[in-house]
Amino acid sequence: MTSDNKPAPLVLVVDDVDHGREIFAEYLEFRGFRVATAADGLEAIEKTHELRPDVILMDLSLPGIDGWEATRRLKEDPSTRDIPIIALTAHALASAHDKARAVGCNSVVTKPCLPKDLEQEVRRQLAARSGGAPEDTAQP
Amino acid sequence: MGSVARLDVLPSSRGSGTIGARVKLSLVDVLLAEPETRLCAVETLRWLARHAGIERAVCAVVDPESGRLTGLTGLGVPPAVVEAFSLDLSDRTHPLVVAMAGSEPIAFHDSGQILPRPFDTPLGKASFHAVPLGSSQQEMGPGLLLLAGAGDGPVSDDVLWAAELLGMRLAALGYRRIQTDERRHKRERSLLLAVIHAVTDPILLTDADGRILIANAGAETLLTAGDEKREGWRRAVALNNMLFSASLFTAERGPTRRELLLVDPSEGKELLFEVLSTPVAIRSGENGIVSVLRNVTDLRRATEEIEENYRRLRLAEAATRAERDRLDLILNSVLEPILVTDPAGNIARMNPPAERMFTLPGRRDGRDGRGSEIERRVQANDAVFTSFVSNLYAGQSLRWRGELNLIDPKTGATIPMEAISGRLVSKHGEETAVVTILHDLTEAMEKAVLYEQVKRHSEELREKVREATAELAGQNELLRRQALELEQASALKSQFLANVSHELRTPLNAIMGYTHLMLEGVSGAVNLAQQDKLSRVDANARHLLAVINDLLDITRIESGKMPVQAERILLSELIDEVMTEVEPVIAGTRLAVTRDLSPDLPEIETDRQKVKQIVLNLLSNALKFTPQGSIAIRLEHHGPAGEISIAVTDTGIGIAEENQKTIFEAFEQANSSYARRQGGTGLGLTICRRLASLLDGRIALASQLGEGSTFTLFLPAKSRTA
User: Fold this and answer.
1) pLDDT band, residue B431 (cuts 50/70/90)
2) Mutation site for B-interface testing, chosen from A15, A19, A117, A120 by largest number of B Cβ within 10 Å
3) Which of B687, B679, B459 is nearest to B556 (CA)?
4) A90 touches chain B (CB under 8 A)
5) Taking Cα atoms as reference points, which of B596, B614, B597, B615 lies closest to residue B557?
6) B500 contact residues in A (CB cutoff 8 A)
7) What's the whole-number mean pLDDT along residues B599-604?
8) Confidence band for B212, pLDDT divided at 50, 70 and 90
9) Cβ pairs bridging A and B (under 8 Å)
């Protein structure tokens, strides 16, 4: 919970699997973040333009426009380029990770991933974007 | 040689004649008919023997040249004695000379009376009469008859008549002879002189004092000079005379031949003469020397030239002979038959191999028929060869090559021959010979057959090789396809595992996520019992995740998708990192974990992440399987080019020897139930060993059940893959 009137960071959770979205969304909201969700790449792009999230959790295996393509488009767009994107994938092979970094993902997290570990990564990316240390204030 | 007689000298009393006129006339007839002095004497002595009782007699005549009385013929006396009889008429006291001078016969008797001097007599010691031949016309008759055997009585009138007749006849003959001889002598002398002068070689006769008696023109030129000749000429002649006279001394004892250098007075040139000197009797008791000089100045030069030419000829001859011997040697050393044929087609020369084909062997035994068979074969060969050579003579080419079938004279086997003939033509285009070399083709033909066989075998072999190669290529292709399929299969397997991993992780994410949400109380509070059970769900999910990760690692190693990224690292730093990571685990135990780092540890070049994974794994295992005691990490450097070892020793449960080999196999754990309790996946050591192998290292194990274990990772001090 932020103590000042500054709104909590908005996290866009993109995942085609319902429980995937639900676990991270629920936990992050529980931890005080604002959360929006998208179920595919196209929706993720639309929501990003519409909501201007502070960080995006992007599952890579998505129907239609997949996570790699969506990331590539968002990173090509100057208006969305600066939004950190954390790739979330069940692919454990290095090639999948390398590909994700190549299209512009700021970090890659392998599933399964404990919600609290993910929260830590989100805070790290937010801190990196604002140029400061990760905020511990939201920690319980 | 007569014997020395001591005889009485008595005047021969004349006896009366008893021989009839007819008998006397017969002697007259004979003597008149006989022109030969000696035969007249012979006839007379015979007549005396027959009619006057004379037994032994010698007729001696006066030699007007020498002035001696010499034996002409004898009766009952050896001819040698007659011939040896010679008496000097100037010895006036000699009894026989005395007898010659008288007109009456003198009788010599062997009475032992001492004579004024002893003398040789051809009639020996017997008494004889010396009867001078008819002396009516001369002071001294032409000869003397010595007669014996008519008794000691006086010489009969018949004997005296015969002596007178013979004397007259001899005187007549002698006179005529002297007359003719003198004319002839004059003629011969002038002829002789003409001949001598005609001879260009100088010829001269000198007396004992070296004075020139006769000289021909050539000799006069050299050795005489009138006052009209110039000074040089005269001096040359004087010198020549001196030289010639000096050379004569050696010639007095017998014929000599010597060389003498004289001067040509007209030109002053030196001339070399060969001088032949022969002593001759000029007149009785006086010797002279005939010398013939032959100018050999040119001759000697010519002789020298001839000798030189002869020497050269001999040398050339020797060279030719040597060349010919050498040629023979060469010809004979050639194993193949060689024949030289003259233009008439006859074989002029052969070497031994040719002789075996074209001549009969020395042994000829026609009886068993074998010899004739050989002969027939030799003749057949000769016919074939002659026909071949005649081809060459018919044609124009210098060389001729052909094939002949000859017969081996010994065995009768046909020998195929290659014949190469060459004509030898002299410089003048004259054909001198044909040389033919025969080459036995039997072997070549056999070789050709063999070659064909070899070629055929070679072809077959090549065909087989080609087939084998094709088959091999097929198999290679098959293998390649199989390899490709295997590769594809392997890739499929890897993909499959990756997919499996992905599909497992997604639900695992949900399980772990929801469990976590519940444990965190996101969905409301949970009681302690629920919390405990959720923790078990979490632990099992984590174990499952570990298994999935390990499987993925193995797959990656096997499919070569785990690249080695070498860098220079300090192992001490790496151990620090590992210790930091396991610190929380160590803290949860009561184990003492020590580190022992050798001071000389160098930097090594290796894959940091993989070394760390191995050490972490070994240390985790040690922590898991050591209920109590201690764990020691020891790093050592074995030699400058050797290995670095990282040993993790624990005082844990240990591993039985029979399990020490299988411990590195996947899902093998020595104590499964215990291991499971400790959360091992059963893949850790498998991965460690494979990672070590990737780094050119290895892992060794030393352990005893209940006594603890030591796992040692050996790494090369410098990676070969770097």
Assistant:
1) confident
2) A19
3) B687
4) yes
5) B614
6) none
7) 83
8) confident
9) 71
**The residue type at B669:** Q
Residue B1 is predicted with a pLDDT of 40
* Three-class DSSP category at B182: helix
Chain B: residue whose CA lies nearest to A21: B510
Token pair 């096997």 is found at B558
Kindly determine whether residue A111 and residue B509, on different chains, have CB atoms separated by under 8 Å: yes
Whether residues B545 and A112 touch (CB distance < 8 A) is answered with: yes
A14-25 exposure pattern, b = at least 16 Cβ within 10 A, e = fewer: bbbbeebbbbbb
| CB within 8 Å of B149: residues ≥ 6 apart | B53, B54, B55, B56, B57, B76
Pairing mode, strands B338-341 and B347-350: antiparallel
On whether any CB of chain B is under 8 Å from the CB of A113, the answer is yes
Quote the CA–CA distance of B407 and B384 in Å, as a whole number: 10
Q: If you write DSSP's letter for every residue of B453-468 in order, what string do you get? A: HHHHHHHHHHHHHHHH
Alpha-carbon gap, residue B365 to B372, rounded angstroms: 8
Please provide residue B691's backbone torsions phi and psi, each rounded to the nearest 5 degrees: -65, -40
B505 and chain A in contact, CB less than 8 A: yes
Pairing between β-strand B698-704 and β-strand A85-89 as defined by DSSP bridges: unpaired
**Residue in A with minimal Cα distance to B514:** A23
Q: Helix (H, G, I), strand (E, B), or coil: what is residue B551?
A: helix
Contact of B517 with chain A, judged by CB distance below 8 Å, is answered with yes
Spatial CB neighbours of B598, under 8 Å, sequence gap ≥ 6: B634, B635, B636, B637
Round to whole Å and give the CA distance between B422 and B402. 12
Nearest CA in chain B to A116: B516
On the CB side of B546, how many CA atoms lie within 13 Å of its CA? 17
Distances (CA, A) of B152 to B18, B106, B110, B197, B269: 17, 12, 10, 62, 79
**More confident of the two residues B593 and B172:** B593
Residue B300 CB contacts under 8 Å (≥ 6 apart), including other chains? B272
Going by C-alpha positions, the residue among B704, B711, B708 that lies closest to residue B628 is B708
Residues of A in contact with B549 (CB under 8 A): 92
Segments in B73-131 forming alpha helices (H): 79-84, 95-101
User: Across the interface, do A92 and B516 touch by the CB < 8 Å criterion?
Assistant: no
Q: Is the pLDDT of residue A11 over 90?
A: yes
Per-residue model confidence (pLDDT) at position B366:
46
The tokens describing B616, both together, are 């972490």
d(CA B652, CA B362) in angstroms, rounded, equals: 111
- List all residues 6 or more positions away from A5 whose beta carbon is below 8 Å from its beta carbon: none
B522 touches chain A (CB under 8 A): yes
How close does chain A come to B686, measured CA to CA in Å?
Answer: 20
Residue in this structure with the two tokens 């796992």, named with its chain if needed: B711
Residue A92 forms contact with B (CB below 8 Å) = yes
Torsion sign, CA atoms B347, B349, B350, B352: positive
CA distance B40 to B167: 10
Does the beta carbon of B514 lie under 8 angstroms from any beta carbon of chain A? yes
- The interface pTM score, or ipTM, of the predicted complex is 0.82
pLDDT given at position B18? 73
Give the burial string for B229-256 (b: 16+ CB within 10 Å, else e).
eeeebeebbeebbebbeebbeebeeeeb
**Beta carbons within 10 angstroms of residue B26's beta carbon:** 15
Please give the structure tokens belonging to residue B254.
Answer: 């017998």
B chain contacts of residue A113, beta-carbon cutoff 8 Å: 509, 512-513
Helices (H) and strands (E) in chain B, counts: 16, 28
Convert the pLDDT of each residue in B164-196 to its tens digit. Answer: 888 888 877 775 555 556 666 777 777 777 888
